[in-house]
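We both want to read discrete structure tokens more fluently, so let's practise on a single case. Would you supply a protein for us yourself, any chain you care to pick? Would you write everything just below, so we can both look at the same thing?
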Amino acid sequence: MSRWTSYNLLFFIKRKKLLKSGKASLFAKITVNKDHTEFVLNCSVTPELWSKENGGAIGNSQEAKLVNEFIDSVKFKFQSIINRMNNAGIEITPEHLKNKYLGVEPSIQTILGIFNDHTLKIKALLGIEYSKGTYTKYRSCYKHVKDFILFKYKKADLAILKVDHEFISNLEFYIRSEKRCSHNTTMKYLNIFKRITRIALHNDWLKKDPYSNYKLSWKKVDRDYLSEEEISRIIKKEFSIERLQMVKDCFLFACYTGLAHSDLQRLTPENLIVGFDNKQWISIKRKKTNVLSNIPLLPVAIAIIEKYKDHPVVIEKNVLLPVNSNQKMNAYLKEIADICGITKTLTSHVARHTFATTITLNNDVPIESVSKMLGHSSLEMTKIYARLLDKKVGRDMEHIAEKYSE
């Protein structure tokens, strides 16, 4: 916050330095605490009309009224500038006030102003460079930062210059404590906010990187996936309720292809191709990474496509499968899990994990091939899914057991 105890705005003329018209230029003197500065205003007055004691023109002439109206407008403008600077936490000095009034400094760069501007750019590039999920995350982070500033500083916004190591530390604590976010979710929000500070650094609105000595860390999280026995349970279960049967089939299709829900939902007949081996493949650019993903179709997946080729939704929307929204699909998967006696939390993303572990890696498919099918931009991303399953470990150790049994 800016620290100041006294402010004064004084108007005066210099009678010894008159204009050619015989009038005197009007000056303003700004004093904040003990510092002051003065500058000429775009106004002049007949010296005889000026009252030093009143700090304005005297009389009822048209000139006197215009001069006093101008002075009132200057006072109002300065008060508005002070309010904005104070709310933004910008240091208030006579020079700052003068420059803001004259417009010789750029507009105040605030945290939420920069954040909102960048978020609007993301919105404008939806479907081109960014996904709806990315935009939603930015909007959520923006709201958390906005609430934090109001909670901690009692301000609607702050100057970007106020962002330092202490600000980041307090923001992290606020998101954890007040917003009840997990460690990794908190780190994701701080990482988004880090991108906002990068924008400020690149534009010289910030002189020092507030993240320079601040380390973001993520905790390893075990990702749920289905075993072969659990997949078998779901396959064998037939549902009389159509919505559950449809969700079951779409979920199984994702288990055998590794497609994320967003990609599963937008599959069209054009994504179904004949590969070099004369067999059916899925070829699609991932919505999240824009990386091409080519996946040979297993018999189960082919059967599911064939089953729904004449479904009204498939025909109307020209898609391969009648995929519900992610929210609905996850809600119905909970019902399916309960009916099938599966205690794990089933979500559409569990299918992707299942493909990466149980279906491929556990069956000795090289991690490089799995990475390509998943549409990952790097092998490091695939290693997150690489589970050392007991079944595979047992197979890998068999030949060693034989050697040492001799």
Summary: Strands lie at 7-18, 24-32, 35-45, 50-51, 56-57, 272-274, 280-285, 292-296. The chain has a mean pLDDT of 89. Residues 362 and 393 are 9 Å apart (CA to CA). The radius of gyration is 33 Å.
